[in-house]
Amino acid sequence: MRVKLDAVLQSVNQVLLGKEPQVRLALTCLLARGHLLIEDLPGMGKTTLSQALARVLGLSFQRIQFTSDLLPGDILGTSVFDKDTGQFVFHPGPIFAELLLADEINRATPKSQSALLEAMEEGQVTIEGATRPLPEPFFVIATQNPVSQGGTFALPESQLDRFMMRLSLGYPGKAAEKALLLGDSRRNLLPTLQPLLDHRELAQIQAQIPQVRVSDALVDYVLRLVEATRTQAQFAWGLSPRASLALLAAARAWAYLDGRDYVIPEDVQAVLPSVVSHRLREQADPAGHGGGSLVQWLLREVSAL
Amino acid sequence: MSALQTIPRISLSWLLVAQVLVIIPHLGHLPPWIIVLWLGCAAWRIQIYRMRAGYPNAWAKAGLIVAVVVGVLLSRGSLIGLDAGVVVLIAAFVLKLLEMRSRRDALVLIFLGFFAVVTSYLFNDSMLAALFSLLPVTALLAALIGLQQSALAAQPLATLRLAGGLLLQAVPLMLLLFVFFPRMGPLWSLPLPKDRATSGLAESMTPADIAELSRSPALAFRASFEGATPPRSELYWRALTLEHFDGRRWSQAGAAQLERQPSWEKRGASLSYSIIMQPNSQRWLFALDVAETGLEGTRQLSDFRLQRRQPVERVLLYEAVSWPESLRQMQLDAASLRRNLQLPAEGEPRSRAWGAELARQYPEAEQLVAALLSHFNREPYAYTLRPPALGPNNVDDFLFETRSGFCAHYAGAMVFVLRAAGIPARVVAGYQGGEFNPSGNYVQVRQFDAHAWVEYWQPGRGWRSVDPTFQIAPERIELGLEEALAAEQSFLEDSPLSPLRYRQLGWLNQLRLSWDNLNYGWQRWVLGYQSAQQLKVLQRLLGRIDSRSLILALVGGGGLLLGLLALWLFKPWRRETDRQQRVFRAFEQLLARHGLRRQPGEGARDFAQRAARALPHQRAAIMAFAQAFEAQRYAGEAGSPRQLRQQLRALRRALPWRLSRIEGEH
């Protein structure tokens, strides 16, 4: 099974050049049943990454371009009256896909944003009194432009907390960019990707990940990390239990990807920046953006053993 | 010069501070040129540190050494002996500053400093001096610690705190060694500094000598009694007897005859007391009549004084028992009789005539003595420390003309008249009275308590003591010299600042007595804790004394103390309870010795990989340990810490024996 996962990584890396760590983290997030927030400038390959992942994992893919006039119904779907049957027939929205790319989520109004985010949390949507389950697996990759850009509604902290990870792709390296410029268009490459996993296999893997062993000593380390965010003065607020659960789940998936059936502190450290940085704010700047330096502090100062 | 060899700034600063503190107690007995030399060397050394001056070359060094040798020879007359030796030591201590290039030199200087601190005890063993010596020792320790720090450390106070902590930790061990370590006789005898001997009674006496002593408030000895202290009028501390009169001066008769066994008969109640005597460079001890002591090397001579084989050169503690009502020397041989009837060949005609007349008038010796005493009492004799000058017939002049003087005059004149009347008599010199310290329950006797009184002998009754001074100035005996001289205001007139002059100020007097009590305790329990005293204490503590129990107490006590100290320092109750963790700490310590320190946030695997990169030859052993640790700690694999320890041992074997620093790793 891990061989297949390695092939998945390899395939995606062929399309998205020079972003191995981010691809690995994105896959980790997916395997841990988390949702992913990619924050970057336009044109950095966010969509490419989502589509590539969807293809190689054999998932149905939908994309919603968030705009300021997007309504919740545009996401969830609406009931339309069928003249022939004389009944309202539900037309599912794009959310009923296995991998949903919510593009530029921060351009939509908070009302539309929350329609998606509630669905992400609960795994089901309730429309006009009827509760409809979302497909399994259900994986959201939301992208957003950096908050500083105009015409955006920044996600509030409570919404950010629902994403397991926040990634930033960043500029490609020189060699990667050269290969990109010399090679085929990414859009043309995507259809060449073959699905490497089917639903059954993906579900199997996702079921195995909670079995990855977490020892007492490791939980103690996670607790020390969480404790530090709650007691140290430089943190505006501490991590929630949801965050510590997400951290552990992500660390398990990372260890699984690494071919181990147990988690070591290095796994936690590998996923820590992407799992907690969007959940932390500096005391000096509580309205600021992310806690990159706080995460570095955690990695450096909290005893790993 | 490599970085390891330079002397850190902290160490140098502490060394200079320590040098000041080491030399201060020596200032009193060092020739002034040493101070000049010292200041010069210190300034030079500071300039060297500031790179404004170079180290002296061989010629300069040789010149300095020759100058010091000449200086010592000129100021002390010799290069050997204690006085000169200390000067040489201090000079070396000072000059070594200029030669201090490497750590080794600084070490030499520090140990020289410790030695110089010890030598200062030879000159002053008072409590204050001992407490002061803690300061230079602390500073020297701080310098020693600073020497081990890197050149970049810049916290002199932290160094001092550590030095103080070390000293404090040494205190229990010091106390143990003080109590239990056997006091061995000296392997060699050290001639003590000569200028230390204070004034005191001498082997011969003129009235002027006693008058000289009366001006000195220096301490002669302290005595504490078991049970109630007798009234001061009964405290006649005998030192020596003066039997020979040459017309001006009373002196001891030939010493050879004195060493016969005295004959006496114990009578009445006994008094037990202990005496702490200040050094006086004489061989006699002070005691009430008639005393026995268990002090080693001490005998009772035929005139009932206690005499030691060695002069008293340091504070001496001894215990004695006295029988004041004893009968002394019922029989007197012809030679003794002759000695105690001796008078100068000529002179003092009136006194001789008066003696002969008294002898006719009073055939009984008791009556004669009583008549003589009542004569002193009745006639207008005066007690003064400023007697008028006496002519060549000084006894005559005193008895019949000036009629004023003090104890030495009265005792000398009375013995003269008794001898002229045919009664064997002699002068006894010693101290009378003393000041009772109620808080310490002891009597302190000072030089101004020096006194002379009279003994006469009668067949069948032995020697009897009488004190003519009591007839003239009873307050001298009952209240002390100060009261006797109240009218004259001559008490300690040469020492206007002596606290003894201000006894009427209650608080000052209290302070003085308490301070004296402290010093008494120091002398009694610290300086006086010598072989006999130690034996007594140990007997009380251990029951019996043999080398085995002593060694057991010393080693056992030392082990116990060090164990407690180690417990306190290592705090095993705070020890890592997690056994895997403990092995990992050992792993960390092992690698730390090779310059690899784990960052707190560094996991076992990351750390091991970094270590493996730094120590590629030990890669296999390092990774094996890390994997075993990881497997046990995180993968839940069965395994005991012992296996980890085996891995660690393998790594230890694989690592080079020497401590090595890895470049670029920190």
UniProtKB/TrEMBL annotation, chain A:
Signal peptide range: none
Protein family (similarity comment): Belongs to the MoxR family.
Protein's name according to its UniProt entry: AAA domain-containing protein
InterPro entries from the UniProt entry: ATPase_AAA-3 (IPR011703), CbbQ/NirQ/NorQ/GpvN (IPR050764), ChlI/MoxR_AAA_lid (IPR041628), P-loop_NTPase (IPR027417)
Segments forming domain ChlI/MoxR AAA lid: 228-286
UniProt keywords, alphabetically: ATP-binding, Nucleotide-binding
Pfam families per record: AAA_3, AAA_lid_2
Span of domain ATPase AAA-3: 35-165
A GO term, aspect molecular function: ATP binding
Domain of life per record: Bacteria
Record flagged with keyword Nucleotide-binding: yes
Zinc among keywords: no
Ranges annotated as spanning the membrane: none
Natural source organism: Pseudomonas xionganensis
UniProtKB/TrEMBL annotation, chain B:
Ranges where the Transglutaminase-like domain occurs: 399-470
Annotated signal peptide: none
Superkingdom of origin organism: Bacteria
InterPro entries found in the cross-reference section: Bact_TGase-like, Papain-like_cys_pep_sf, TgpA-like_C, TgpA_N, Transglutaminase-like
Spans traversing the lipid bilayer: 58-74, 80-98, 105-123, 129-147, 159-181, 550-570
Keywords recorded for this protein, A-Z: Membrane, Transmembrane, Transmembrane helix
PANTHER family from the UniProt entry: PROTEIN-GLUTAMINE GAMMA-GLUTAMYLTRANSFERASE
Identification of the protein by name: DUF3488 domain-containing protein
Organism, as annotated: Pseudomonas xionganensis
